[in-house]
Amino acid sequence: MIIRADSLTATRWKNGGGMTREIAAGPPGASLDAFAWRLSLADVASDGAFSSFAGVDRVLVLLDGAGMRLTEAEGRVHTLDAPLAIARFAGETPIHATLIDGPTRDFNVMVRRDRARATVHARRASCSLDAGHDLTFIFCVLGRIDIKAAADTRHTLETGDTLCLDRGAELHCEASDDTSWLHIGIDNV
Predict the structure, then answer these.
(1) 134 pLDDT band (50/70/90 cuts)?
(2) Domains of the chain
(3) What is the pLDDT of residues 56-102, one digit of tens each?
(4) CA angle in degrees (0–180, nearest 5) for 100-63-5
(5) In b/e form, how buried is each residue of 40-77, taking b as 16+ CB within 10 angstroms?
(6) Are 1 and 164 in contact (CB under 8 A)?
(7) SS3 of 27, please?
(8) Is residue 119 within 8 Å of 185, Cβ to Cβ?
């Protein structure tokens, strides 16, 4: 299934401080208090505290903008200052975000650690990969990706599009020279 960028709807963050666009969640239609996993985009326009998500592991990937620093209450700092920079942290950790130089757009993966696990890999080139997760997502950050799946099934993603596949065989992802993309695997616990 392909989720096109123009089909995503903007909604307010849990803490009211920004906007998010949910790409997919499990189970479908789950609220922010009931999801097992969630993929979304966030537009961050100002400094501020992150919403708390107890029992949730989070992965944040910078997609666009100069970046931000995520400062944990005990002093650890995650610096996302280049496209595809990744930060991993527990959702219950108090975090304050400081923008480096203006707004950013981020990709977010959240999994309830008692219900799911996630892997996130940033890519900039063509490759073959194993779709051996319960769910595999390919998110096109920039450019165009042509994907060949099982039984010679083909999919094309443009900037902002996401492909979701159930557990399957090998995929071959052909990316143009200027393309960047994310490979996300979700496994139920």
Answers:
(1) very high
(2) 8-114 (2.60.120.10), 117-188 (2.60.120.10)
(3) 999 999 999 999 999 999 999 999 999 999 999 999 999 999 999 99
(4) 140
(5) bbbbbeeebebbebeebbbbbbbbebebbbbbeeeeee
(6) yes
(7) coil
(8) yes
